[in-house]
Every structure is written in C-alpha cells, then in structure tokens.
C-alpha cells in the first residue's frame, strides 16, 4: 500500500535509515562515549538478529516461557451493549508477567547475554517494563537495576514487590516530578557510568538509535500474530486497530502487522485531567518537535522549551514525548492519534471487567475506552484493541482513588 508517498510494502527495509531516522525524527543525540556504546549495540543487533541461533532461541523462549502466541478474544457482551460494531482484544495481558513488555525484554536480555554483558539497566513507570526486565534477568542470570520514580513506586506497589522478589535492585528516583521522565534521566546517567559491563534496556520505542527500531522489531510479534489470528477468526481484516500510546511500544508492535493494509490505525494518548499543560501527557496532539533522552520527536515543552510536566492516571503513559516512529506516522497521517481522559479510562476499566471478566491495566483501558467511543461512532464493522496489560498492578490504586463503581 502506498500512503502519502511511502510504500508500506517495503517500509521496514527503509525506516529507520542507517542513522536511525524516521524522516526527521529519531537519531542519536548523545555523548561520544555513549555513541560508542550505542554503535556496539547496533552492530551486535544487526549481526545477531539475522542469526538462526538467536532467532531460534527467541522463538523457543516465546513459545515455552512466555506462552505465545497470546489469543484474541471476542468481546460479545460489550459488543452487544454498543450496537452492531464487533469488538475484539489482543490478549497481551496473558503474556507471561502480564503485559507486552516481556516481548522486547527477553530479546534485549538475550542480546546482552550474546554481547557478554553482566547487567541490565532500565527505567519503569507503571512497573510492567521493570517486572518484565527483572523476569528476563532472572531467566538469563543477569544483574538488574530498575530506576523508578517515587510517585510511581507508591502507585504501583505490587509491581515493586514483584521486581524485588525476582531479584532486581529497585532504585527510587526522587528529583523533579519523580515519575517516568526522571526515571529515564537516572537510568541514562547510570548507563553512562556502567556501559562497559551493562546494557540499557529501554522500555519503549524511544531513546537513541537503535532502540526505537529494536524494540519495534521485538514487539512486532504482537501485530504479526494478531493479523493472522483475526483473519483466521473472521475471514477478513478489522476495520480499525486501536492501541494506547505513551512511549508507544505496544502500539508500534500492533501497528506493525497492519501498516500495509487498508485498516484504520488509532493511537490513544492520555488527556488526563484536561487540555491545560501539566494536566495531560498527549505529546503528539499538543506537542512540537524537540529533542530529549537522545532522540528527536514530538514533545510537550514548557515556556523555556524544556520538557513540560505531564500527568496521567496511568503511570506508564506519563511521558512528555513519544517514540520517533509515532511522530513520523503522525505527520504522514497513516496513524490517527487522539485522546482519552481519566474518567473515560476508569469507566472503561470497570466496564470491561464487569461485562467480560477481563481486568485491564489502566494504560490499556485508554485503548478500550477509545474502542468503545469508536464503536459508537462507526455504527458497523469491527475494532481490534491491543489489551497491552492486565490490571492486577492497578487494583489497590483504583480502589483507593475511585472506589468500586
């Protein structure tokens, strides 16, 4: 399919380019020392990713350890309550450790093992990436340091406990807003000191090249599976595919399977409490071009041009930028990016739980809320939603803040 001059049949051969750019977005805006480290990772990845041994081991891990492929579930009761549009969810909540994050963490940790590294370092917001990387580190026998904002540590206590049980060292970040951006800052600083013996396993399709590409590639299993499964279930492709977007790893994984198809793609950002700067984290809708954490993308800026304070009820979405490939697809118009606020999200959280027996992560509930909204507007057709994670980690926080609805 050709869209705005881009041939999506050959898209993955050309994007990113050799310097890590998706159009004008991406790249590697980092120190010379870190450039050498990133070049080492890039060379290792391009060497290993084509190796039958690496691919075979990763496929075995996905099948025998992660429990892949994850299924698609038809939401019959929810669909019937909305009219004639049929809703389906890709069940990444059933991936081992409870979210899509393990898809790239096992790949990154396997890469670290092949490179002879002894430690993996990462940031986490909602804790799912931290849990996934701690799981991968335990599986491969690697040390693991997880940087997490103090605010998120309090909101995501169950995941903090899980990381510690798995053997990870959870390091509290207290400066600034003490959320995801600050956790990324701290993890980068640690990696700059330890890159000879460690690898920074970035938790989304962001950061300097090669991570936006590498994480997308590892996550593409979601979209590849979903496309095949949906065709098998229904005999046709969905009319629309929906995924939540913070950094955007689950969305790029899902969208990768459908970019070359006549399917509408929707990325859902957190509107939080409203449109005022500081009350949301909808960078693609309200942001502008800017560089942070080693890559150029679309970001929310304050009056000084620095990353703006952000907010979302979902700890995994409160980041002031988005992956560079999302910025590229946004400018092309191939993916439509829209917003859902906190209240709509919490309503969807309880609706899916009550009607379908599936408790979603708050991040995923943004996509569910948008899928419901889209179904009401469409009138007919089908919508496939990426249910990127389960809500076990969020239940204490939901009950404390919102009670039982």
Structural write-up:
The chain has 405 residues and is of the alpha/beta class. It folds into 2 domains: 22-62 and 101-211, Rossmann fold, CATH 3.40.50.1100; 68-99 and 219-402, Rossmann fold (3-Layer(aba) Sandwich). It has 16 helices and 16 strands. The protein has helices at residues 11-14, 32-48, 52-66, 76-82, 102-114, 128-140, 150-155, 157-165, 180-194, 211-234, 249-256, 283-286, 324-332, 342-356, 362-378, 395-402; strands spanning 2-3, 6-7, 21-22, 25-26, 72-74, 85-91, 119-124, 143-149, 169-173, 198-200, 240-244, 264-272, 288-292, 295-299, 335-341, 381-387. The strands form 5 sheets. The protein has a 6-stranded mixed β-sheet with strand order 5-6-16-11-12-15, sandwiched between helices. Strands 9-8-7-10 form a 4-stranded parallel β-sheet, sandwiched between helices. Strands 1-2 form a two-stranded antiparallel sheet. A hairpin with a 2-residue loop joins strand 3 and strand 4.
Give me the secondary-structure topology.
Elements (H helix, E strand, L loop, with lengths): L1 E2 L2 E2 L3 H4 L6 E2 L2 E2 L5 H17 L3 H15 L5 E3 L1 H7 L2 E7 L10 H13 L4 E6 L3 H13 L2 E7 H6 L1 H9 L3 E5 L6 H15 L3 E3 L10 H24 L5 E5 L4 H8 L7 E9 L10 H4 L1 E5 L2 E5 L24 H9 L2 E7 H15 L5 H17 L2 E7 L7 H8 L3
Helix pairs in contact: 3-5, 5-6, 5-10, 6-8, 10-11, 14-15
Provide a concise account of the structure shown:
The chain is of the alpha/beta class and 405 residues long.
